Amino acid sequence: MNYRFIQTEISDHVFTLTLNRAEKRNAFTPTMVNEVAHAVKEVNDNDLVHVFVLKAAGPVFCAGMDLKTYQDPSLDIPNPAIQNADISLGEIFDQLNKPSIAVVEGDVIAGGFLYILGCTYVFARKDLNFRLPEIALGIFPFQVMAGLRRIMPEKKILQLCFDPSAFTTDKAIELGIVDSYLDWDSLNELIASFANKSSYAMKAGMEALKSIRNMDSNEQYSYLLASLQKLKDRDEVKAFISNKLNKG
């Protein structure tokens, strides 16, 4: 697939996606969002991919939505190989069912939070700024709230959304938005650790966790037991378990 605004690469068990609109601070357009959606579907569908790594070209990780393009769709540059659908980045990353790692080397602004809030792990440089400026523009970071809700109390979400000033990587770690400072040795070790983990098991586990979000507690265990049995019945999983047992 030839993408306009992202680059992708598969190496061994790793699928790497790089946001590649550096001249516009990686601000996303409808086409760019749909290219990300196309790539994420490929990650989900490819059983050889065990982990998804998200990066960005240029000095800014993502400056959020390209407001001019969203206000005037004629400014967007379509990708003829992909049909644009009305979908948000939050939805796309909620549909990602493989472990994901965001490698953040530039500032994250506004809708750029949707990328990192959708990832399993987030590692960022120490000297970065994170900012939700929407309230100062007379709007509100509505979609970002959905991702924030999974990691912090509603009171803290509102305090963050009401403050358009920048905050540091230290604060992002304190809030749970970032997991740790970017250390390449630790990052590469983490990426390598997924090589021998069952992609079927990881995918099934992530799907199950999402499914029980709104289930009554008395329904969760029967559903999870059925999910376990369904996973164990897969020929690929039987072969995986047998191979592990034979190796001792």
From TrEMBL:
GO MF, one annotated term: catalytic activity
Gene3D superfamilies (alphabetical): 2-enoyl-CoA Hydratase, Chain A, domain 1
InterPro entries found in the cross-reference section: ClpP/crotonase-like_dom_sf, Enoyl-CoA_hydra/iso, Enoyl-CoA_Hydratase/Isomerase
CDD domains in the cross-refs: crotonase-like
Matches recorded under Pfam families: ECH_1 (PF00378)
Family: Belongs to the enoyl-CoA hydratase/isomerase family.
PANTHER family xrefs: ENOYL-COA HYDRATASE (PTHR42964), POLYKETIDE BIOSYNTHESIS ENOYL-COA HYDRATASE PKSH-RELATED (PTHR42964:SF1)
Protein's UniProt name: Enoyl-CoA hydratase
Organism: Sphingobacterium cellulitidis
